[in-house]
Amino acid sequence: MTTNAMLKKDVPHYHGHRDRLRHRFVKNGANALQDYELLELILFSSIPRRDVKPLAKTLLTTFGSLPELLAAPINQITKIKGISENTAITLKTISATATRMMKQELMQKPILNNWTRLMDYCQATMALEKKEHFRILFLNKKNEMIADEIQNSGTVDHTPAYPREIMKRALELEATAMILLHNHPSGDPKPSQADIDMTHSIIQSAEPFNIKIHDHIVISHNGYVSFKNMGLI
Q1: Both 121 and 208 in a single domain?
Q2: Residue 14: what pLDDT?
Q3: Do 211 and 141 fall within a single domain?
Q4: pTM of model > 0.85
Q5: Are residues 17 and 112 in the same domain?
Q6: Which has more pLDDT, 9 or 74?
Q7: Is residue 116 located within the same domain as residue 191?
Q8: 20 and 63 both lie in a single domain
Q9: In 10 A of CB 2, how many CB atoms?
Q10: Rounded CA gap, 26 and 124, in Å?
Q11: pLDDT band, residue 173 (cuts 50/70/90)
Q12: Which of 51, 93, 127, 203 is most buried by a 10 A CB count?
């Protein structure tokens, strides 16, 4: 056997696959790759000596989709055989970087003129959460977003909101308007009567401070609902 043949025999079969996949990505972009192939590219860096195609497919089958995988907590991802904590952190870093970029695109800009981008950001950060979170976007007099904060987290179907604490934080930030947000892990974005009552309580608390509540958005993995569009505020 020649030296070249021996060297070729020692090279794992997946090396050629990795090179071809990288070449397709560079040449044709992400749209030319399926979800499991994009996931393979991510896994290459943290799992250098293994064929990761079966693992990528297992991850997607287990979690249902790429967004659901990236939204999953680290301790759930590491339950998959072959996924170390380091690999799970790599996946979560990709997700965190993407949402950070989306947030920075919205900060210090008139948010009411970027509604589609705002809803994309909210869906990315909240739609797949397993517990309810009550979130507030604080705006200045130009309706530019100056802060995005989770005020409280609750159970799978309830999270408390305290108007006095919300007003205190708004005054600290010198906010003149807010957009309220919370998620429904059930998948049904229809607001409950408790959601409506809570919203009206916050609006009443904001009135003495001339703070405008532009909207309250309920986010779910099946879409979102706007209180303003429903005529609820």
Answers
A1: yes
A2: 60
A3: yes
A4: no
A5: no
A6: 74
A7: yes
A8: yes
A9: 7
A10: 26
A11: very high
A12: 127
Could you tell me the two tokens for 219? 């986010």
Tokens of 52: 């990761």
Whether 1 is covered by a domain: the verdict is: no
How many domains are contained in the chain?
A: 2
Domain with 173 in it = 107-226
Q: Tell me, yes or no, whether 2 lies in a domain.
A: no
CB distance 86 to 59 below 8 Å: no
Whether 92 and 25 share a structural domain: yes
Between CA 220 and CA 193 the distance in angstroms is 17
Q: How far is CA 185 from the centre of its chain?
A: 13
Rg (CA), the chain: 23
Residue pLDDT, tens place only, 6-63: 444 545 556 678 889 899 999 999 899 999 999 999 999 888 878 899 999 999 999 9
Residue 146's domain is classified under what CATH number? 3.40.140.10
For residue 150, give every residue at least 6 positions away whose Cβ sits within 8 Å of its Cβ, in sequence order, or none.
133, 134, 135
SS3 sequence, the chain?
Answer: CCHHHHHHHHCCCHHHHHHHHHHHHHHHCHHHCCHHHHHHHHHHHHCCCCCCHHHHHHHHHHHCCHHHHHHCCHHHHCCCCCCCHHHHHHHHHHHHHHHHHHHHHHECCEHHHCHHHHHHHHHHHHCCCCCCEEEEEEECCCCEEEEEEEEEECCCCCCCCCHHHHHHHHHHCCCCEEEEEEECCCCCCCCCHHHHHHHHHHHHHHHHHCCEEEEEEEEECCEEEECCCCCCC
Please check whether residue 209 lies inside any domain of the structure. Answer: yes
